[in-house]
Design goal:
Number of strands: 7
Helix content: 25-40%
Shape: globular
Number of domains: 1
Oligomer: single chain
Structural class: alpha+beta
Largest sheet: 7 strands, antiparallel
Number of helices: 7
Order of helices and strands: HEEEEHEHHEHHEH
Length: 222
């Protein structure tokens, strides 16, 4: 038993080191674990939010003129027909220029279908966007992502996902999920082994996509 305890402790130390390296790289402030029930901090929401999740390695800062929060979220998900399982995400939140009236989830097809179907039961207004319509935007993107949005936001998808934007996502960032709501953009990576390189790739994807979205606001001036 002590051997397994040592392995767990070492893994946590290695994970903390990873986030510390990222904090140094992007000049973020590291806060460690935060409680959604008692601590005063900005809660990162989105489709992984639940009453039982735990947030660790909470980091905040400003990168390329954008306020960001980086954290690791874990949660134990219950399924109707199989045992519960613990999952882990790296989540990067980036503030946008102003609120926009859409809620869109880009779910990478490389992930566990059962898990994401279960998570989306918490958000019953989110509907799957027609895959034929997604293919018309960009075929590589359509093969890499499923698109979810409330019915009233379906017409906004083509405005946000131009063929050029969709192509870059489908070719370069298909390993991530993206969620857009209010003035927030979330980049999510489901992984038990975060590395500085993986997280830096999340920053590359998120900062690029935030600029793409911000530049479509008529009030935005670069």
């Amino acid at each position: 038993m002590p051997f397994y305890g040592f392995k767990l402790t070492q893994k946590r130390l290695d994970t903390k080191k990873t986030y510390k390296i990222v904090c140094d790289r992007f000049d973020l402030v590291y806060f460690g674990s935060v409680s959604q029930h008692s601590d005063e901090h900005q809660m990162v929401r989105g489709f992984t939010l639940s009453p039982t999740h735990t947030d660790r390695h909470y980091c905040v800062g400003t990168v390329a003129g954008k306020d960001v929060i980086l954290l690791e979220r874990t949660d134990t998900i219950s399924f109707p027909d199989k045992p519960s399982k613990k999952y882990r995400w790296v989540v990067l939140q980036i503030d946008l220029v102003k609120p926009i009236a859409v809620h869109i989830l880009l779910n990478g097809n490389c992930h566990d279908d059962t898990l994401y179907s279960t998570l989306l039961l918490r958000h019953r207004t989110m509907q799957l966007y027609d895959q034929f319509a997604v293919s018309a935007i960009d075929r590589q993107f359509a093969s890499a992502f499923r698109v979810y949005a409330p019915l009233q936001h379906m017409t906004d998808i083509a405005h946000l996902l131009t063929p050029e934007t969709a192509s870059v996502l489908g070719h370069h960032f298909k390993q991530f999920d993206f969620e857009l709501f209010h003035d927030r953009l979330l980049v999510l990576a489901q992984t038990d082994t975060p590395t500085p390189a993986k997280i830096e790739k999340m920053f590359q994807a998120g900062l690029w996509l935030a600029d793409e979205i911000n530049n479509r606001h008529p009030e935005h001036k670069p």
